[in-house]
Design brief:
Layout (H helix, E strand, L loop, with lengths): L22 H10 L12 H11 L2 E6 L7 E3 L6 E3 L6 E9 L6 E8 L4 E10 L2 E10 L7 E4 L2 E3 L1 H4 L21 E9 L5 E2 L2 E8 L12 E5 H7 L8 H8 L14 H14 L2 E6 L7 E3 L4 E3 L5 E10 L6 E9 L3 E10 L2 E10 L7 E4 L2 E3 L16 H5 L6 E8 L9 E8 L13 E4 L1 H7 L8 H11 L6
Helix pairs in contact: 1-4, 5-9
């Protein structure tokens, strides 16, 4: 006797569109919404930040490295570590390259192997997408408070290793999904100062019927308002900028000098041709650097220092803590040189080797340098196009704003970010080795994948996405 199987009671799967087809139009509509949003007029953001600063106690004072509470130089290595073994450490790195004016060096570097979350929550109000931004204190910010993502937390933070308060709104980015994920990608951070550091960059949208409880340190802004604020010095923090750069593309351009496959092929060649030897070494063995009671610094006074701070912050998960910070010497310059080719703006990208990258090379702006670190070298050994970025032709600068770098690990780290329009006499169609032309759309497509576009290039892309600059 044959027994037939009972029919399955499971419903047939329902196929969904692979992408949210109307998202680009909705982002463009939000980018066009300037002046005012649900919570604030753009002109009132300064007053709101000042109000939040008055509502909490913030204090940052320098402390000698040897007196940092909870931190010490480890026996045997000299690495600067936290007593829990968590958060991060300052170690040494030895680098040897196969080409370039400087072929080898050693340096301290921040090692933070855990992956954090940088997440922005989106919601539609009156038919316009808004983004929940936070007035966040970071000890390294020159002006203390800047606009940050909804969630900006390391794994140690959101797993409450510090035994502090829970991270607000974290539930929208972890655990059971409470909204639609529009972006979720691992991206690197500063490859010269971090060793293989990566964070999840996330955009999650909740429905109009979802109540995200309001908090006094958060506000809803349109993408256009954020774009207006990106024209201001030291206002939108690095973590917000990198997440915005990972938003799905707002604008598209139909053509490019290279096809996407040709650009990918060029970049693959750049990644594969570099002969690089990178080794972690004990901080005690780093040559050319001195370690004192107060600071770790280069013998020539260049590059950066490792310093200590004691922090009080009334609106953080922990109200008091000590930590080391990396303090750059001087202000950096970060610039995309661009020109119109066939009527389409093209950016001159640099396949840049940075010692802390997971994959050695990422796509960077045309110029990314601290000028003071190169002045001791002859002009021919300095980065290409550096002088053009430092002294651009009159009337060719389309964007010039000073932005802070990551304030949780770097002290007063700032770079002047620029878009500079050029012509064939300054930037030929056949650029030098290691450089190539790409449209903003091509770079945007690559931000959907991790470890292709570096954090400085993502900052400049965010300015295009939010309408802070028109090329």
């Amino acid at each position: 006797m044959t027994v037939s199987a009972a029919p399955s009671l499971r419903p047939a799967p329902v196929l969904r569109p692979r992408v949210a087809e109307d998202l680009a139009a909705r982002l463009a509509r939000s980018a066009a919404a300037t002046g005012a949003g649900r919570d604030l007029r753009t002109a009132d953001v300064d007053d709101w930040l000042a109000q939040r600063a008055r509502a909490h106690r913030f204090r940052v004072e320098r402390v000698p490295l040897g007196r940092l509470d909870g931190w010490s130089f480890a026996d045997g290595t000299g690495n600067l570590v936290h007593h829990t073994g968590r958060f991060f450490s300052v170690e040494g790195l030895s680098v040897t390259l196969g080409e370039g004016p400087v072929r080898s060096w050693q340096q301290p570097i921040i090692r933070q192997p855990e992956v954090g979350i940088l997440g922005i929550l989106a919601k539609e109000f009156d038919g316009v997408l808004h983004f929940l931004m936070q007035a966040k204190m970071e000890p390294g910010n020159r002006n203390v408070l800047q606009l940050s993502p909804t969630v900006q937390a390391t794994r140690s933070n959101y797993s409450t290793v510090h035994r502090g308060a829970k991270v607000k709104y974290l539930e929208y980015f972890t655990g059971p999904r409470r909204g639609q994920v529009h972006a979720d990608v691992l991206q690197s951070e500063h490859g010269s100062w971090f060793y293989r550091k990566a964070n999840r960059n996330m955009l999650v949208e909740v429905g109009e019927d979802t109540e995200a409880p309001p908090d006094e340190d958060f506000c809803w802004l349109t993408l256009g308002q954020i774009g207006e604020l990106l024209r201001r010095d030291n206002l939108v923090n690095m973590d917000a900028r990198t997440v915005i750069a990972c938003f799905p593309p707002v604008h598209s351009f139909p053509g490019a000098l290279l096809t996407d496959a040709e650009l990918q092929s060029w970049f693959t060649v750049e990644r594969s041709r570099h002969d690089v030897d990178i080794r972690r070494i004990p901080l005690d063995e780093v040559e050319g650097w001195t370690r004192g009671e107060d600071v770790v610094e280069h013998t020539d006074g260049r590059y950066f220092r490792v310093v200590g701070v004691r922090v009080e912050a009334g609106n953080r998960e922990v109200s008091r803590w000590d930590q080391p910070l990396l303090e750059p010497v001087g202000t950096g310059v970060t610039a995309f040189l661009y020109r119109r080719i066939g009527g389409i703006p093209h950016l001159l990208v640099h396949a840049k080797v940075e010692a802390g990258f997971l994959d050695t090379v990422e796509l960077a702006p045309t110029v990314q340098a601290n000028p003071g670190n190169w002045r001791h070298l002859p002009p021919e050994d300095r980065p290409p196009f550096l002088e053009l970025a430092l002294d651009p032709p009159a009337g060719r600068v389309r964007y010039a704003v000073v932005h802070s770098e990551e304030g949780g690990r770097f002290l007063n780290a700032e770079s002047r970010y620029l878009f500079i329009e050029t012509d064939d006499s300054q930037t030929p169609l056949d650029p030098p080795p290691g450089y190539q032309w790409a449209t903003p759309g091509q770079l945007k497509a690559l931000t959907a994948h991790g470890h292709y576009v570096n954090v400085q290039a993502r900052t400049l892309l965010s300015c295009i996405d939010a309408g802070a600059v028109q090329l």
